[in-house]
Amino acid sequence: MTPQALHQSRLKILDAATDVVRAKGYAATTVDDLCAAAGVTKGSFFHHFKSKEEMVLEAVAHWNTWTDGIFAAAPYASAADPRDRVFGYLDFRRDLLDHTVPQFTCLMGTLVQETYATHPAVRAACDRGMSSHVAILTRDIEAARLKYAPDAAWTAESVGYFIQAVLQGSFIFAKAKESAAVARGNLAHLRRYLESLLGSPDQNPR
Q1: What is the pTM of this model?
Q2: 3-state class (DSSP) for residue 177
Q3: Domains of the chain with CATH codes
C-alpha cells in the first residue's frame, strides 16, 4: 500500500470514529464497528493504532482540526463587529441543529461524559479541546465587552464557558428526546441572556 493510501485509510478510520462514537458512545463502539464504517480491514486498523483508546485520542485531535476549520470559515467569523460575531456564532450553532442528532452533537462532550473517570488521557484531551474552543470564542466576547459593556463585572471567559455549558447540556437533552427542540429553545434563551449583557445586535455601540 502506498503512503498516500495508508494516509487515506487512517483518515477514513478517524472520520468514521467521529460519527460512530457520537452515535453509540465510547464503550459501545467496537473496532469492528469502526472498520465497517470506514470500509477498512481490522488489520488496517491495528496497523495505524495500537488500541481503540489510541485511535480515539487521535480522533479528538482530528475533530478539533476539522471543527476549527468549520468555525473559522463560517460567515459570522468575518463580521467586523465583535458583538455580531458572538451572536453570529449562536445563529451558526442554531443552524447546525437542522442535522441529525449525532451530526450536531460534540465528539468531546460525548466522550468526556463516559470516560472522565476511567480514561484520564481521553478526559484530558477533551478538556484541552473544549477549553481551546472556549478560548477562541472568548476573544470575540472580550472584544464585545470592551466595546459594549466596558464596566461589566463578568469576565469573557466565564461567559464563554457558560455558552458551552448550555450547548453541551442541550446536546444531552437532544439525545434523550431524540429531537433538537429543547436545544433550539435553549439557544433562544441564551441569545436573550447575551442581549442583556451586550445589547441586541442592531443597537449602536456606546
Answers
A1: 0.92
A2: helix
A3: 51-198 (1.10.357.10)
